[in-house]
Amino acid sequence: MLLLLNVLLVLFLGLIFWEDFKFRLVNIFYFGAVVITGFVIFILKNGIFKNLAFSFVFLLINLLCIKAYLIIKEKDFAGNFLKINNLAEGDILFFLVIIPLFSFYNYVLFFITGLLISLIIHLFVKFRIDKRETIPLAGYMAFYLVILILFTQVSGRSLYVNIIF
Question: What angle do CA 110, 116, 122 make, to 5 degrees?
Fold first, then answer.
């Protein structure tokens, strides 16, 4: 059962990667499929709901800090408080829907390493393949998550246990 759910998860993450990289937007259905699959895996793995709350608060603090930084940098508070310039709603939604897939520690680790890996991949892709200025962050993160899921399947490790490496 878990293997089938992980295959579905990899399929939906692959679709997110492809659509975000090619079109710079993602069908909302894929996010819904990832969150439903993630919650089923979370329940089957006997996930701790406290991890969900901590991960959500971590994401919220990061987004609020980004918003505060942009307000100070631009010296302008005009506009929608919930909208963060230069960060697509799909990217935020992706960070939200993958919360059930990790323990809190591994979510923080994935968040930080995923952003660094996305930056490195984008610098390479921008100069070699795709000259567009926008970054398909959800796509790169989905690609990274697929690699992590495949690694955990082969190695027998778990994203729900605090140390994956």
Answer: 120
What are the pLDDT digits (tens) for 98-151? Answer: 999 999 999 999 999 999 999 999 999 888 887 788 899 999 999 999 999 999
| 17 part of a folded domain | yes
Segment 71-95, tens digit of pLDDT: 888 877 666 666 787 788 999 999 9
Residue 32, domain member (yes or no): yes
- The alpha-helical segments, DSSP class H, found in the chain are 2-23, 28-44, 49-74, 89-97, 104-128, 137-155
Residue 142 lies in a domain: yes
What span, in angstroms and rounded, lies between the C-alpha atoms of 71 and 68? 5
**Cα separation of 39 and 144, whole Å?**
20
Number of domain units in the chain: 1
Domain that holds residue 83: 2-155
Asked whether residue 161 is domain-assigned, the answer is no
pTM to 2 decimals?
A: 0.91
CA 62/CA 157 separation, integer angstroms:
28
Backbone torsions φ then ψ of 9, nearest 5 degrees: -60, -45
